[in-house]
Write a structure and sequence with these properties.
Mean pLDDT: 82
Shape: flat
Number of helices: 8
Structural class: mainly alpha
Order of helices and strands: EHEHEHHEEHHHH
Number of strands: 5
Distance between the termini: 46 Å
Helix content: 55-70%
Largest sheet: 3 strands, parallel
CATH class of the largest domain: Mainly Alpha
Number of domains: 2
CATH architecture of the largest domain: Up-down Bundle
Length: 249
């Protein structure tokens, strides 16, 4: 039996597939073993007769990079890349990877609602376009998207200005910006749920996009970078004189 060790599960899958192809004529059997999934099936596979095991449990130290170094702007690449782009706090960029997508998802839901409402007639209130609750929801959603975009753009301009000057933004400012980014995902999820509700029973079907988009928003809201209550508590705690414990800034 042979053991092949690689650093990631994605690479483990690629190597295993290549080995299966290469060993097909000789009848070689390949098993992948990695974390994040049930152990029992993997144990059963190892107990069977195998020729090659592809594992991802060992990564040489010189191939690793500390996540904390990224957040502290001490990554090895930052010693080489001195442009202002590489001086932006990684924690601020990280959280926007979700909030920006949430804005696009909410805009997609609003566009779909506007189109769907043109032909929808509700049993309770007549044409959807004449329903004052739908009208208000459309206005509130459009205004919220505009407001959130303006806030994120302003914050990013400020962060880039600090980077251009070679300065690190003050802690209070970074806490505020992170909270405002997580607030985007929170607000988009709530507004998305209201839009979903406004579509009635038809919104449950897979012929309309509302359920799928709301699921995407909920998935983004569950991401570690979008724990709205925790991030808000961190910022509020510092305003109240407590020590900051959030390093992802």
């Amino acid at each position: 039996m042979s053991l092949v060790v690689v650093p990631t599960r994605e690479l483990a899958g690629q190597v295993a597939e290549d080995l299966r192809v290469a060993g097909r004529l000789g009848g070689a059997r390949v098993v992948t073993v990695y974390g994040g999934r049930a152990y029992e099936p993997q144990i059963d596979a190892l107990r069977a007769t195998v020729d090659i095991v592809v594992d991802d449990v060992v990564v040489p130290a010189h191939r690793t990079q500390s996540m904390l170094d990224n957040f502290l702007l001490k990554g090895p690449g930052q010693a080489i890349n001195t442009a202002s782009l590489y001086r932006l706090p990684f924690g601020q960029i990280f959280v926007r990877g979700i909030s920006t997508a949430a804005l696009g998802a909410l805009q997609g839901m609003l566009n779909a609602l506007l189109e769907y409402s043109e032909s929808r007639v509700t049993r309770a209130g007549g044409p959807a376009v004449q329903n004052p609750f739908v009208q208000l929801l459309c206005a509130e959603t459009a205004a919220a998207i505009d407001e959130m975009k303006l806030t994120l753009h302003r914050n990013f301009r400020n962060l880039h200005a600090y980077a251009d000057r070679g300065e690190t933004p003050p802690l209070a400012e970074r806490l505020q910006y992170k909270f405002q980014s997580t607030a985007v995902t929170e607000r988009c999820t709530r507004l998305g749920a209201r839009i979903f509700k406004a579509t009635g029973a038809a919104g449950l079907g897979d012929t309309l996009p509302f359920g799928g988009i709301l699921s995407d928003l909920m998935a983004g809201r569950a991401h570690i970078s979008n724990q709205y209550e925790y991030v808000g508590g961190s910022w509020g705690g510092v305003m109240l004189g407590l020590e900051n414990k959030d390093l992802m800034l």
